[in-house]
TrEMBL record:
Keywords: ATP-binding, Nucleotide-binding, Phosphoprotein, Transcription, Transcription regulation, Two-component regulatory system. CDD domains: AAA. The modification 4-aspartylphosphate is found at D54. The keyword Isomerase does not apply. GO terms for molecular function: ATP binding. It comes from Hanstruepera neustonica. This is Response regulator. SUPFAM superfamilies: CheY-like, P-loop containing nucleoside triphosphate hydrolases.
Length: 387
């Protein structure tokens, strides 16, 4: 049942609004507040689907109520109630995030139509947020350790912003999974996620790969070509192993971050881009800065939010969950019956030194499933998972 709060200091107007909404539909639950302060306190305690709020009120006016609600529960649509002299203010509240406004005395049809549309919009917003929070199973972060839970909590806080994120950690720890989670839980999830492995692209080609080029810019440039930044427009670009990027490319990435503009190689025309940048590295970038291999100004542009992914040796308590996950996935991929692991086998795997991290564990689990018995035993682990 949709729950509506009417915030209005004039008792007569408040009673009319409550009466109209209550009589319109048995499905509306209507509550009231006598002033802005009382209304905000009610919103803090209860979940409302819609707020109708007067503009001129004692203690806290409608604009202040709007600003407060947008901070504590931004998903709630707010319809402003304006007197004849408040129309300019009412229009301005739309810029501040109000859904709509209605004039006093309220017109019955306009009021009910606005309420229905606002409630429909609220439902869509909630559905969209729920969908965005559902992360593809292909990129699940498996684990219940404190370290992993902290990363998940940070992702939930950061994903809905456009803040740039720098992900650090050893090879094989799952830095790319963090990038995928950030994108899929963000407002940009409907846009592209473009991945660039900076270490895999030759230094002489990295600028063309990132920013594109025009025909004739270099010997093999036989036609114009858009780069990864343009491809990621409206979405996210993931710069993996950014510590391996050349200094000249770093300078251009810095400009792109500062100005939201790029230039294709061989052209001085600016191209505007709307891209969120997420970067990752297994290197100590502060050490790279000291050695002259990485720009300090670029580091500070990228590292608005720092997420450190721990080595598997630092989260051994997650190994049982990871083994279970990989067993399920490998059985599905190979079309075979899932194999279980004995408690002693799991315990032995937890004692290993996982220098290759999650990637190495996954390979070992697959090997044990192929070569081990019906249930993977401690003996199987000693025989087939040895270093």
């Amino acid at each position: 049942m949709p729950k509506i709060l009417v915030i209005e200091d004039e008792a007569a107007i408040r009673r009319v609004l409550v009466k109209i909404l209550s009589e319109e539909s048995d499905t509306y639950q209507v509550e009231e507040a006598e002033d802005g302060l009382q209304g905000v306190e009610a919103i803090k305690k209860e979940d409302y689907d819609l707020v109708l709020c007067d503009i001129k009120m004692p203690k806290m006016d409608g604009v202040e109520v709007l600003e407060a609600v947008k901070k504590i529960k931004p998903e709630i649509p707010i319809v402003m109630i304006s007197g004849h002299g408040d129309l300019d203010t009412a229009v301005n509240t739309m810029r501040l995030g109000a859904f709509d406004y209605i004039s006093k005395p309220p017109d019955l049809n306009r009021l009910l139509n606005t309420v229905r549309i606002a409630l429909d919009r609220k439902e869509l917003v909630v559905e969209n947020k729920m969908l965005k929070k559902k992360v593809s199973k292909n990129y699940e972060m498996i684990g219940a350790s404190d370290a992993i839970n902290q990363i998940k909590e940070m992702i939930d806080k950061v994903a809905l912003t456009d803040a740039r994120v720098l992900i650090t950690g050893p090879n094989g720890t799952g830095k790319e999974l963090v990038a995928h989670w950030l994108h899929q839980k963000s407002e940009r999830s409907k846009g592209p996620l473009i991945e660039v492995n900076c270490a895999a692209i030759p230094a002489e080609l990295i600028e063309s790969e990132l920013f594109g080029h025009v025909k004739g810019a270099f010997t093999s440039a036989v036609k114009d070509r858009a780069g990864k930044f343009e491809a990621a427009n409206g979405g996210t670009i993931f710069l993996d192993e950014i510590g391996d990027m050349s200094l000249s490319a770093q300078a251009k990435v810095l400009r792109a971050l500062q100005e939201n503009k790029i230039q294709r190689v061989g052209n001085d025309k600016d191209i505007k881009v709307d891209v969120r940048v997420v970067a990752a590295t297994n290197k100590n970038l502060k050490k790279e800065i000291e050695d002259g291999n990485f720009r300090e100004d670029l580091y500070h542009r990228l590292a608005v939010i720092l997420i450190k992914v721990p080595a598997l040796n630092d989260r051994r308590e997650d190994i049982p969950l990871l083994v279970e996950h990989f067993s399920d996935k490998i059985a599905q991929e190979q079309g075979t019956v899932k194999k279980s692991f004995s408690d002693k086998a799991i315990k032995l795997l937890q004692e290993y030194d996982w220098t290759g991290n999650i990637r190495e564990l996954r390979n070992v689990v697959e090997r044990l499933i192929i070569l081990g018995g019906k249930e993977v035993s401690e003996a199987d682990v000693k025989m087939f998972a040895s270093k």
